[in-house]
Design goal:
This protein is an alpha/beta fold and about 350 residues long. It has 15 helices and eleven strands.
Length: about 350
Amino acid sequence: MGAEAIGSLMAYRLAVAGHDVTAVGSRAFAQAVQERGLLVEQNNKVLRAPRIRAVSDVECLSETDFELILITTKAFDTAVAAVHVRRFARAGATLLVLQNGVGGVDVAIGLLGSEQLYAGITTMPVQVLKPAVLRLLESRGGLGLAAVDSAQELERLAQLFVDAGLKTQIYQDCLAMQWSKLTLSMLANAIPAILDWPLDRILADPRLYKLERDAVCEAWAVVQRLKLRLVSLPGYPVPQLVRGLCSLPPRLAYPVFRRAVLHRRGGRASPLQHDLQRGRPKSEVTFLNGAVARSGATAGVPTPVNRALNDILTAIARGEVEWSAYRGQADRLVQRARGV
């Protein structure tokens, strides 16, 4: 459910491993797969997935039974996806919510229950070039899995992805895994989106770097108050990155931040920036910076930078604030985030 970047990559990998795969995506995605298949570009080679079934509506799947359902939508579409797959889940399918941020799994639990539900994160940089055409930017990264309630199927689930050629790691603490991915996903994401600036302009402005740093350090403070421990994710030593960024003086921490961001983002637009450019009325910032702000309020940890970034970006996405009011307006963003 949700055959965009990660969903399409999972469909490709599982199909190559010999599984019967159905991918639910947009009409453009389904049509492209039907016409020419699902294509993945890696190391200057274009590979075609074995035949997969691609549809844009689950209603045509009424007679189909599934062993595993992956929800790979953006976190803000979890509820819709969960409602669509509920009848298949009732038939006994294992469920895996594979998303960024914190909060999507809770939505899935509310609609589907927790008994058959597992949580996952990915650290593989994937780019959608056009419907059903992906580019895997590098081999670094992998998949993290954790049980939400029962761990009965966790080992079997992990082996499924290992056999599909994915570096897969099991985590004992679901929240620790999710918050670790959240801190990684926050890097150079909301600020480039709000300003609609390329990464090099963000990195060149000391004020914006300090905002980025403060946002991550607020998240770390929330994690500590929640008595969680950040964990390393496939390809990314998150605890060392966050400690270096937040414990060193800002000037000395800058090279740590720059290396992490350049490696994570490269020359691509940030995911939140891409969503605004596509005109999406919802934003995943609610499950990133917004999750930090909500958890901070509950735990008594001040999170002014994350709250400001979440509020601004959410208002732009909803059309409540014109993007032009902040696009390229670094002074205005800094003043708003600092409460000036």
